[in-house]
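Quick one: structure for this chain?
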Amino acid sequence: MTKRTGAEVLITSLESEGVDIVFGVPGGAILPAYDPLYDSPIRHILARHEQGAGHMAEGYAWATGKVGVCIATSGPGATNLVTPLADALIDSVPLVAITGQVATRSVGNDAFQEAYTVGITMSATKHNYFVTNPDDIADAVHEAFHIAATGRPGPVLIDIPKDVLAGLTTNHTPQEIHLPGYKPKSEGHYRKAKEAVSLIASATRPVLYVGGGIIKAGAHEEVRRLAEAANLPVVTTLMGRGAFPDHHPLALGMSGMHGTYTATTAIQKADLLIAIGVRFDDRVTGDPASFAPHAKVIHADIDPAEIGKVRKADVPIVGDARRVLGQLLDEWGDREVPDRTSWLTVLDGWRREYPLHYDQQPDGPIKPQYVIEELYRLTGGDAILVSGVGQHQMWASQFWKFDEPRRWINSGGLGTMGFAVPAAVGAKAGMPDELVYAIDGDGCFQMTLQELITAATEQIPVKIAIMNNGAHGMVKQWQELFYSGRFSATLLGDKVDYVQLVEGMGCVGLRAQTPEEVAPVIEKSLAIDDRPVVVEFVVDPDEMVFPMVRAGGTNDEVMIGPDTIVKQDPNGIPRLDMQP
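Got it. Here's what it folds into:
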């Protein structure tokens, strides 16, 4: 059989897995792989930093549902990927990262640009490989894609020394996958499904609580069918936005630290939680000891490690969300739709009494919530919305209506500032016919803005809205509430001219400083489709995100606004003992 280099096999293996785009930055150790990539139909998008390449691969995976791929060289190139790998792991994003390594003879000798990549990334990946023989490359790639996309999705890293990439092999095609220790369980136990349906039928205050696992499993239709069949009000996590349509009458929105009052309180008062594809994140539970104190719990998840980790499950079900929901629907059969008028009337009352709100005065300053609502109105909600991390992320999740899955991309678990710009570039690269709009904060934007050069050079016409409040807004909010307004190291200042900055990178820059300028600049941004567009909205620096439950607090104490804080703390706002 014809001999080929390990690098050639690597690239053809990627082609065989259906890869159409990779995001990366070349370097010495990975150079052998970049040579055959030059002749491959795979599009390579040259990021300006490896972290950007990783987040681009994440954005691509979120938007398309495919496995994202990123490439880096050894040493600092590989270590720069650690953040997106950790981000993808906690948010269950399927990713394959390929890193070059110094030549085998130099491993362990502190060679130039050497780092122990496999060791460093071990806790940031679902699995990783150190390939020492070119004969093993085809199998490693095939297995990596299988592991990344099956079970609970996640990142897999393949580290390959330069001499292995350059070495010759006759093994061009992968063998049948044989992974004795890896057998994800997709089908739930039928007896547990039966127990779950019995609880659902007898509950008087049930809540269907759904998360990102629904979107990963493609189970949004099954969620809607179960909610309607059993007349269940539905609460989503931050990662589950779009798993259930916000315009549905049974939708209560997002729960947790900055969730709606109704969603958070519904869980607290529920007598049954049907939790599917969620992991009981601390931003939802607050103090686990006081979380949903009256509720029995049905918990279904593909990852058995998540069940019982935070909250004991009365009915644990290990399995793929779509399969489990299908089992529940089969078990429910043709039962009559339960009459839950009493419970739904209570929920409607809370919705009317405690809606999301903000106060936009005609003469300003611009409220960020107003910008988001105008963006939603002028796009008709027909966009993939990407966010950074912080106040703008919470406002976007609150004020944008998500009716479909894979329209909301953000860093929920790791909370990675700087995620938005590169993730939006990746999403737009993967879905070029879709409008991709990112909402970022000025602090987040300054962390990865160089990837706008990537977008301009690669002709990826993504749109970015910067909510410029001159600060790391969420940290500043906590300082305002919990540290007596002592803004230590959170004020960014006003020295950056974002319009000039982005135009210097090949983008169109726009700015709105008054409420009446908001709609016109959004319309201008939507009219430009041949270059990236960045719109700076100079927003109220003192606006805070509400509702709010303090970190580690009880969800029985939802702060609706600043006035609520004073009512809850008669001694005044400063509470230095209240650690965020």
